[in-house]
Amino acid sequence: MSEIIKWRSPAEAAQKRPSREAALEAVRTLIAWAGDDPDREGLKDTPKRVIEAYREWFGGYDQDPTLELKRVFEDVGGYDDIVMLKKIDVESHCEHHIAPFLGKAYVAYLPTDAVVGISKIARVVEIFAKRLQTQETMTSQIAEAINDTLKPRGVAVLIDAEHQCMSTRGVHHKDVTTVTTQFTGAFKEDSELRNRFLKLAGYG
What we know:
Largest sheet: 5 strands, mixed
Number of strands: 7
Order of helices and strands: HHHHEEEEHEHEHEHH
Strand order of the largest sheet: 5-2-3-6-7
Number of helices: 9
Shape: elongated
């Protein structure tokens, strides 16, 4: 597996996860740190809601992206050109401020002897999005997971997202998006093929 990929396995995540009580108390502490009273009526159930939301937002730690890519279909009728999914929703949180970043992913690969179900590509994006990382790391991890598991002739990934750590705090610049790309194999070596992907994604 590539050095780029250093994600925790579901077993590691479960082993290192604190207790529910510790998580609830941590939220209560943050509410107090913000300047409010965690015991007042409107906030009494907030810790429970927050940790439930965290399990949803960060559910990717409980899933293995490589397992989603294991089942392939070999009856492709000789098809050997680009397989591409466009505008996959990205709902993630950056590791620096745990602030949301929202956008779209564009993922393509060049199959060898088999293809994977298209929903599985979207699931891989979702699994990595539901973890704490940077957009750059996520882009690389998606590409490397597909590349290492499917062994295609090449993978291309583009993510375009707005980061709320920039739009709602700090410099407060709205309507600014970050675009990251990662290419492997033929997409990395062949500029014409790479440009085809970018044009199909609407960035060419």
